[in-house]
Amino acid sequence: MALSTHTTPSGFNLPSIHSFPPFFTEQPNPTTQTTVTNQWIRLITTYARHRKLFILRIEDAETPGSEWDEILRNERINRRLLPTHLSNIISAMSAKNLVEYEPPKQTRSVLVYWRLPEEWAEVLHDWAVKTGQLNSILTFYDITDPQIESALTNIPVPLLRRAIAILGKTGRSQIIAIPGGEGVRFLARSK
Amino acid sequence: MRRGVGLAAFDLQEQSKRSYDVLSSELSKTQIDNLHSQLNHFRTSLAHFAAEHRESIKSDPSFRHAFQQMCSSIGVDPLAGPRKGGWWAELLGLGDWQYELGVQIVDVCVSTRERNGGLIDMAELLRMVSKLRGVSGGIITEEDVVRSIKTLQPLGTGYRVVEIGGSKMVRSVPKELDEDQAAILAVAREEGGRVIEDHLIQKKGWIRERARAALENMLLGDGICWLDDQAEGSRAYWVPSAMHWDA
């Protein structure tokens, strides 16, 4: 049997291991399972980056129809990733700081860091500079749903807050109270 | 020679002995010179041959095969290391070529080890090594791989070529495969990589306990098998090294 790569309808290139039936089983051999986990971590991260997906839930492995179906299921070989297996992969990712439980204090839903919060902070600041919005007060909505789509469109607010906080440490952002909530002001890099 | 008597005869004898000595050393000098010139001639021819055919030896597998046959029939090892082989290896650069191939074999074996447990099909290995070398690397054959693995032996890496179910595989971990494991690998190859207990019972006439024990042993012990618990019917075992991987 030949194991080949496969391009999904969304244009994502699945590695050949995704058509290897045991890839969807938790392996009793710990060395083999480490390989499986690492491959899944890479797959989840690259797929999230490809589709710009931020949230992964255990539910996504429970019922079909999720935006993660292309990787969590392989209809061609009739295999799927089981929720318990996904839960273990997620906890391995959490240990490597590649995901963060969101909201905190539960383990069924995570923010996937296909860019690290530090990287998001730079993307955010670059966007403010390039769109000429330094020093003006922006709402979170202005950032997550801008008129011209940006790399930050649809970024979840908890992740946005982390990025703003990181910029705050170097004096490049300020959270400001505005009527009806919070706003943020970006400042030029202080030399 | 007439043997005279008296002192004069003694002198004569001494004198002729000296002449013979001179003659004999002259003769052996000619022989040595002759040998030197032959050797020089041989060396020049070899250098010429090497310069002319070096590229063909490296890039054309059938030419390389013929060349190696020729070398072995005259008792010369063209691959004897750079130091040991002296100007042979130096002129041909074949030692380096072989070592380079060895390194590439190790590269492929090590990088695929986590999925195949240190056992790779020869065809698969050839394909992956060729890919690694790119088009300019020329075509390599099974014979080249076997030869390179031999050059790796002094390193004590435990690389070995084993024959399983009529086809060659390369084992890159120094562990013996027992008979039952070899039988399972052979069945896996026939079945496209997948093995279940029933296959072994039907094809090999094993009892279920033996089949289960052997499969579990390969699964848990060596990592040569992977488990598939979503298969219809029974627990299925898959052998990655019996399958063709695209990437």
UniProtKB/TrEMBL annotation, chain A:
Keyword Protein transport: yes
Matching SUPFAM superfamilies: Winged helix' DNA-binding domain (SSF46785)
Annotated GO biological process: protein transport to vacuole involved in ubiquitin-dependent protein catabolic process via the multivesicular body sorting pathway
Molecular functions per Gene Ontology: protein homodimerization activity; structural molecule activity
GO cellular component terms, A-Z: ESCRT II complex
Keyword annotations of the record: Protein transport, Transport
Listed Gene3D superfamilies: Winged helix' DNA-binding domain. Chain C. Domain 1, Winged helix-like DNA-binding domain superfamily/Winged helix DNA-binding domain
Pfam families found in the cross-reference section: ESCRT-II
Keyword Ligase set for record: no
Family: Belongs to the VPS25 family.
PANTHER family: VACUOLAR PROTEIN SORTING-ASSOCIATED PROTEIN VPS25 (PTHR13149), VACUOLAR PROTEIN-SORTING-ASSOCIATED PROTEIN 25 (PTHR13149:SF0)
Name of this protein: ESCRT-II complex, vps25 subunit
TrEMBL record, chain B:
InterPro entries (alphabetical): ESCRT-2_cplx_Snf8, Snf8/Vps36, WH-like_DNA-bd_sf, WH_DNA-bd_sf
Pfam families xrefs: EAP30
Superkingdom, taxonomy of origin: Eukaryota
GO biological process terms on file: protein transport to vacuole involved in ubiquitin-dependent protein catabolic process via the multivesicular body sorting pathway
Assigned GO CC terms: ESCRT II complex
Similarity-based family: Belongs to the SNF8 family.
Name used for this protein in its record: EAP30/Vps36 family-domain-containing protein
Origin species: Crepidotus variabilis
Lineage of source species: Eukaryota, Fungi, Dikarya, Basidiomycota, Agaricomycotina
